[in-house]
Amino acid sequence: MCLQKNYVVAVMGKVEGQGESWHGHVTAVTVAPEYRRQQLAKKLMNMLEDISDKIDKAYFVDLFVRASNIPAIKMYEKLGYVIYRRVLRYYSGEEDGLDMRKALSRDVDKNSMIPLKKPVTPDELEYD
Amino acid sequence: MSSRFGMAGGIPERRVRPIWDAVDSRQFKSALKLSTSLLSKYPNSPYAIALKALILERMGKVEEALSVCLTAKERLYSDKLVFIDDLTLSTLQIVFQRLGHLDFATSCYEYACGKFPNNVDLMMGLFNCYVREYSYVKQQQTAIKMYKTVVEERFLLWAVCSIQLQVSCGNGEEKLLLLAEGLLKKHVVSHSLHEPEALLVYISVLEQQAKYGAALELLSGKMGSLLVIEVDKLYIQGRLLARSCDYVAAAEIFKKVMEICPDDWENFLNFLGCLLEDDSRWCNGMLSDQIHRPRFVDCKLSHLADEVFDTRVSIASDFVETLQTNATSDSLRCPYLAKLEIERRKHLYGTGDTVNLKEALLKYFCRFGHLACFATDVEMFFQVLSPDERTQLLTKFIESCEPPHTAQLKVLGKSITIFKIRELIGTMFRLPVNKLERAVKFMAELYCQNLSLSKDLDPQENMPGEDLLSLASNVLVQLFWRTRLLGYLLEAVMVLEYGLTIRRYSWQYKVLLVHLYSHLSALPLAYEWYKTLEIKNIMLETVSHHILPQMLISPLWVDSSDILKDYLKFMDDHFKESADLTFLAYRHRNYSKAVEFVEFKERLQHSHQYWMARIEAPILQLKQKADNIDEEECVLENMNSGIQLIDYSSEERCKALTFNEDMQSRPWWTPSSDKNYLLGPFEEDSIKTRENLLQQQQTTEREVRARIIIQIRALVPRLIYLSIQSASSSLKETLEANDSIFDDNMSLKMKSLLECYARSLGLAFNDAVKEITSIANGQKSLEVSCSSIIDWMNFAVFVGAWKLSSREPSSPDGDSWRPGSLHIVDNFLKKFIIEKLKAMKPLTEFPGNDLLILVQMVTEPLAWHSLVIQSCIRASYPSGKRKKKSGPTTDLLTSPLFQAIQGSIESLRGTLEELTKFMQDQINASDDEILDKLFAPFQRKGCSEGPGQIIHILEDLASGSSEEEHGDRIARALHSWSSIDCLRKILVGQRKVLTEFELICESKLKLLQTLKLQM
Fold it and tell me: Is residue B645 part of a domain?
């Protein structure tokens, strides 16, 4: 992973899942305040998506974001992510989380991005 | 949880599943019932017994769980048992681990592996046990056994990583790496490697042995194709070439990386370093300190001949120009920064011309001056210029700022950048006061003019121009430092509170406020803002320094205890979990991460802040209970009479300390937790060189001092314990001859600790004792820093207590301490406390640290001394009878020691009464009068100098704000602003600290009164 000057940005992720749920997961993405508004987060996300797609052959990339974090949600939407499902009280049993997803080339029909109609609880999440 | 054959631990799975389901849904009672029924069918099954132990542990029945677990272990060892599976062992392991008996779990696995030597599942479990115990050698041996059994690549890599850990974190010698290399080589010949991580580990083993050529061969060979990300591969190749001093080839490789990633600054530095044959990036290994990133690029003066240097530099310049031409994005900064770095190197070499550098900087400003990171980007290039050149360049920046059609956001960004550069390079500190005032007014006006740009922003988004209020607050603090007009300091607070009224998410404002409120002794407000920062996880390690040091010496014990608990919980949880994470990394074949996790844990385990918290948490408890000797003794008992902390005081151990605090987020006036420029007079020079000082010398000094503090503080609990014992013993000695519980051996041990303490204070024991005597007798004054005063006062108390029962024939001070050792301590304490008290001025008008030092004097040395007295008095009662009616005998009452105790009580009472009076005077002062006084500077409308001008600008904005201009949210926030409420809050915060301190003093007075009555 190439990083910008003075390690001012970082992205952390992993691949997980079984079968068609094999996916890249963004654990964290962050840009130091001084370096924001330079599209650095977009570059990092693209990098992670590229690795998930070409190297790990994943079907999609997903991430969790606080439902109240409107600027982040907007940014992910601009990057092509959709809200796949709402996870009730995901953050410390208080705030809802949004599970956002973006299909990769292996998911030709973009099935992984079809939103669920009902929210889920953290117990219903599948862990690998 | 079940085996492949529908059996779990030798029991059909259908019988076991309901128990696990009940456990998972926390239905422990029903789980226990089911388990009892299972046990009736399988009474000798270790698995069934282990399950019961697991349930009992979850129910909190720790002792019972351990006993059941041990029964399961016994059954496991039974000769009759023919079947042991990993499920049984892992269940036992879980329980043993939670009960803190990793060793039992390990021995179970060791036994099982001995009985079934070729069972890989069991060996994996055993490996896991050794990972938990950080037993690298045993890990290695087990991994090798597994490898020999099934010849799988992963087990070989587990062994190799275990060897690497022996070398980096254990006591293993580097030649062990030869063994790792041999193992890998042999495996590659027969099986090659199949995982990219395996190749990376192989390369790292070779690199650690400086076998760069062999590593390069691997990379360029067949196995090199395992690394599918081309850039990653090139990066490693370049690094290996550079470390083998093949700079020409390395430069070519890094050039290729630049072509693929033109915005990679680190890689450009690699490229330039190789061109100029400068090994500073390679000689100390790769940069590893992610917390204290250097602000300046380290480089050596080139040894190249002029001609060669010029050629290499022109190669770099041409390449950078090509990158600039090919740049496809406006936001690509690296090729332009690279130009600056080339000019800087030329200048350092002596062939550069600052004209070129200034020109390049101006171009960089025109292109990127609006970015928030501009000032940080160019800071090191400004350092090359003379003060005059910097000023000229800034003027050029300003002149270039007026293109008529530039977007408003960019113009604003550039204006902020200019202020930031002025702050960074220190020119703000050389401006006269009136110009500073003008500058800060301009900042406030600019903020107001541009607030409408934030009209439609989400409150969580950064606002354009937000930095202006932090900059303004910084200038106001400087104005306070220079003029000593409190109004400026209060205005600095108000400006930030105003900003937070508009947007509560700005952490920059909050951090500054934490420090400003701490300086104003309004600690509850500091703590409130600190809490809203919502610092979590590893940030607790890097950020807690903003609040922890001042809270620890404050009277806000409950909050301090919370901060310590949160921090220690995170750290201890991590230490508990980190081995599991490491094993997970092994299991997922992320070998390099396994090594990284262990090294990270090691770093945290040696963290300065962690050690400090480990030591200060029990000291805080001791402070809280010091008015009741019985409760104090319970606290001491829980920490093994202070013995467990003594280990931290070892000089050898302290050498391994790591410092993870991120100091860059602190305000300029308090660059480290023990430095506060505002407490002294204005020093232009110290600020001018601040950055350099902080980066080099001061950091080292701070670390040296931090190690000494750890060494001293780790001794305190044990010395408190020994002081109590010594005091009690001296009384008993007076009462009943030869009935001393504080034998000579204990006395010697105490003396030895006092000798260590004295050494940390910088003196030999005898000299330190003489120093105390001279000061107590008024023959000399102690000249030490404020932070050391407490260490000296504590030392005096402990020496005094030791002297009470010491039988040393000749004392360095001619035995002047006996029997009057208490008297000397009384004088010593009184002298410092009263001196400090006399120097104190009303808190609301004269902020600073003095109040907290006074608090520490009372809650530590004075409290420990009162414990010595409590111990004496308690011992004066016949054993088992501590009631007032059966008080001390007449003989004892007339003894010199008893009279000295009476004297001590009177002395302490006198001191505390004076303190209480001082506090009450401040607490009872009229709020309105104080507020009028504080608010006066802000009521002088129309004044063109002095404090108040900025807040007037902001107040005008607030009163004139409308929904149309600023949007509903901001307009509402602005209308709610009240300057006087902000000042009132400060007053309330300060009162809270005073009240808490007064309560502490009153409690101690009450105790002394009781003691007096008991005599």
Answer: no
| Residue ranges making up the domain that contains A56 | 5-124
Question: Got the DSSP string for B920-959?
Answer: HHHHHS-HHHHHHHHHGGGG-TT-SSSTTHHHHHHHHHHH
Within a domain: B155: no
In sign, the C-alpha dihedral spanning B268, B269, B271, B276 is positive
Q: Which residues of B touch A7 (CB under 8 A)?
A: 290, 293
CA distance B877 to B604: 48
| B467 contacts on A by Cβ (under 8 Å) | none
- The gap from C-alpha B787 to its chain's centroid, in whole angstroms, comes to 19
Rounded to the nearest 10°, the torsion over CA B42, B47, B52, B55 is -150
- Are B376 and A4 inside 8 Å of each other by CB? no
In a domain? residue B7: yes
**B820-831: pLDDT as tens digits:** 788 899 999 999
Range of the domain at B103: 1-116
The C-alpha atoms of residue B48 and residue A122 are separated, in whole angstroms, by 31
Per-residue pLDDT of B579-635, as tens digits, reads 999 999 999 999 999 999 999 999 999 999 999 999 999 999 999 999 999 999 999
Identity of the residue in A3, A33, A38 whose CB atom sits nearest the CB atom of B266: A3
Kindly provide the residue ranges of all beta strands, DSSP E only, lying in B40-150, ordered along the sequence.
none
CA B53 to mean position of chain CA atoms: 38
Using the Cβ of A55 and the Cβ atoms of chain B, whether some distance falls under 8 Å is answered with yes
- Would you call A88 helix, strand, or coil by DSSP? strand
What residues of chain B, 135 to 194, have a C-beta less than 8 Å from chain A?
Answer: none
As a whole number of angstroms, the distance between CA A57 and CA B937 comes to 67
Look up the ipTM and state it: 0.90
What six digits make up the tokens of B117? 């030597």
Total tally of structural domains belonging to chain B: 1
**Conformational region of residue B447, where left means phi above 0, alpha means psi within -120 to 50, and beta covers everything else:** alpha
Residue B898 lies in a domain: no
CATH of the domain at A69: 3.40.630.30
Nearest to A6 among B235, B293, B507 (CB): B293
Spatial CA neighbour of B308 closest among B359, B229, B247, B256: B247
Strand duo A82-91 + A60-66: pairing: unpaired
pTM value > 0.90: yes
B1011 conformational bin, left if phi > 0, alpha if psi -120 to 50, beta if neither: alpha
Preferred mutation among B21, B229, B298 to probe A, highest tally of A CBs within 10 A? B229
B293 touches chain A (CB under 8 A): yes
Count structural domains, chain A: 1
Closest CA to B525 of B991, B32, B18: B991
**Domain CATH code at residue B55:** 1.25.40.10
